[in-house]
Amino acid sequence: MSLVLQMRNDRAGLVAQVQALAQIEAGGGSLSAEQLQQFTSLETQINDLTAKIKRAESAEQLAAAGAVPVSESAQGATSPPAGSISGPFSEKAKPGTGMAQMTRLLAAAQGNQQMAAQLAKDGGYPSDVHMALSVVTPGAGGVLVPQNFATDIIESLRPVSIVRKMGVTSLPLNNGNLTMPRITGNTVVSYIGSDTDIPVTGMTFGDTKLSAKTAAAIVPISNDLLAMSGVNPRVDSIVASDLTVSMGLSEDLHFIRADGSGVLPKGLRHWAPSFNVLTAPAVADLTLEKIDLFLGGMMLRLEAANVQMKSCGWLMAPRVLRWLQSLRDGNGNKAYPEIDLGMLKGYPVGLSTQIPVNLGADGDESEIYFVNFADCMIGEDMDLTIGFSSEASYKDAEGNMVSAFQRNQTLVRVIAKHDFGPRHVESIVVAVAVKWGKGM
After folding, report:
1. What is the pLDDT of residues 144-188, one digit of tens each?
2. Within 10 Å of residue 256's Cβ, how many Cβ atoms?
3. Which burial class, exposed, middle or buried, applies to 284 when counting CB atoms under 10 A from its CB (0-12, 13-18, 19+)?
4. Distance CA 260, CA 270 (A)
5. Which of 61, 132, 296, 408 is most buried (CB neighbours < 10 A)?
């Protein structure tokens, strides 16, 4: 146990004694002369310990900042400065690097926070990583990630999670909850004649309520990567990428199609009102004209609901988009050439493998979404928790059980809390029974 942590534990014990004495008076009793003297003595000891803790923390911070990093090759005093690699492979730290370094150290130490802090100090890691590991305390669910690292990794999800990438609004949850008012009916404005009463009208309001839902992602990391000592941006970039990809895929799966039952958030598919769920034209009698009218009809649903169209976009499975991309008109020209630029009918397209292509009775249907993403919100609890195991097993993409021990891997479990919802459900249109491209 580090000196700082030991002093904090000692101070907590003294504070508990002070509180016990204070409870006597709170309950209507009075302190004896001996107890009053004890109270004063405890107060002095607490103040002295607080001052010592501050000095020890400053000393640790200075020691971490001045530590000589360990080179992966030389392992000596000739190592490059912390956070960098000399030579032609020099790279800048990317978003999520601090979280990746903290994860790598904790995984190498099998969740032992004090050992990880010492590894950070000896390995020349940045001072914020060393300090974070020196002050966090492990809990039953794992180690709580400092908020600055958690914010960094959540922001790095934006280019990975297709729902975030399309422009949803991220808002903090206050004590795990967020209530956003929404307008459900507009003010009616009318013209009146002379000596006529002005009609009393007004807007009607409703609420969108978000509450923290717990999401967990399992990330297998090679022990060969964890064995690399010192700061290496390329290694940290791989770890950060694995973390964000796993979390991003989990978010897309739930923010698009989760039904909101039990502990799940409600995704776009189940937020969409029934009158905005449209059945796609059947493949048997499909024509380019019918396809174009149908896609335009999806857009019209939002336009007719007075939805601001500046932040709208499409979500679909890759199979559907590649089929649309291959369509040709009667002259052999591409029907939608803008798809090559990531657009469809003037709006950006997001691809997600989390939109199934095996829906329906025959297992060959998919869905298309047209959404005003500026109207959608992710409520986020900025606390992330990470846990580790080198013995647990997990299921791969094919559903096969994989032993981390046999694969020489360490499993990192990331637990996040968030929820998803739109301010106006009319901003979501879903096409179902989409069999387009099923033969591709």
Report:
1. 777 777 777 777 777 778 999 998 988 888 777 877 766 555 555
2. 24
3. exposed
4. 8
5. 132
CA 96, CA 151: separation in Å to the nearest integer? Answer: 9
* Closest residue by Cα to residue 302 from 168, 161, 422: 422
What pLDDT shows up at residue 93?
57
Nearest to residue 139, comparing CAs of 339, 386, 316?
386
In a domain, 381, yes or no: yes
Residue 47 to residue 345: CA distance in whole angstroms: 67
Task: Read off the DSSP letter of residue 283.
Answer: S
Q: What is the pLDDT of residue 267?
A: 94
Answer for the pair 101, 261: CB distance below 8 angstroms, yes or no: no
What's the distance, CA 202 to chain centroid? 38
- Structure letter (DSSP) for residue 332: S
The verdict on 177 and 325 lying in the same domain is yes
Per-block average pLDDT, block size 10, for the chain (440 residues)?
Answer: 65 78 78 85 87 75 50 37 37 68 80 80 80 69 74 76 90 79 56 64 63 82 73 75 83 91 91 95 90 96 87 95 93 93 95 93 95 91 78 78 85 85 92 88
H-state helical runs in 188-317:
223-226, 233-257, 268-271, 288-304
Residue 385 sits in a domain of what CATH number?
Answer: 3.30.2400.10
Instruction: Decide if 368 contacts 320 (C-beta within 8 A).
Output: yes
User: Looking at residue 406, what is its pLDDT?
Assistant: 85
What does each C-alpha distance from 44 to 23, 30, 36, 56, 369 come to in angstroms?
19, 21, 13, 18, 65
Residue 336's pLDDT is what?
Answer: 95
Q: How far apart are CA 58 and CA 61, in angstroms?
A: 5
- For residues 43 and 179, membership in a common domain is answered with no
> Residue 105's closest CA among 231, 273, 3?
231
Nearest-angstrom CA–CA distance, 440 and 203: 49
What is d(CA 284, CA 329) in angstroms, rounded to the nearest whole number? Answer: 18
**Range of 21's domain?**
3-65
Are 44 and 174 part of one and the same domain? no
